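User: Quick sanity check before I run a bigger batch. Here is a single chain. Can you write out its predicted 3D structure?
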Amino acid sequence: AVPRVIGFGVGIPGQTGMSIFAGANISPGTVLTRTITVSNVTRKALSYRVMVRPAATAGDGTALFTDATNGLRLGIGRPGLNPFYCGPIRVDFPVPADDVSGCTSGQVPSGALKALRPSETDTLILVVTFPATAGNEFDGVATTLEFVWTAVELPAP
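Assistant: Done. Predicted structure follows.
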C-alpha cells in the first residue's frame, strides 16, 4: 500500500497563529529555544518528518541557511533526553523514536521512526543557534525559514 499523506497538528502549547521562532538583530552566539507539541488528531497511527527550507520571501540571508559551519544550527530533542539531531539548519528527515544516545553533528538520526498513535502527542525542543564563529559576512542579512512537518499514515499492524 502507498503511504497516504494526512493532516496533523504542530504548535506551541497555548498559542496559535504565531511563528515558532522570530528573531531580529540576532548576533553571533545567539541561542533561541522553543518547545513545541506534535499532535495526532487522526484515527490512525502516524510517523512524521521535519524539513527546514527558505521561505518564498527568504530575503538575502541564504548563507544563514547554506553555510554548514557559520550558518544557523539546529538541535532537536525531547525533554529529558539527549538531542537526536544537531547540525546545520538545512534538514529533511523522519523524526525518530526516543533516542538517549545523543547526536553526531550534521548526521540525520537513523533507527526506528516515532509512531504517534491516535490522540497521542510528542513534545520536541527546538534550539536554533547562530554560531559565535560567524563573521561580518552575515552583517545586515535577513532570512525567513519554514519548518515543514509532514505526517504519513502507518500501515495497520
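The radius of gyration is 16 Å.

User: Great, the batch can go ahead then.
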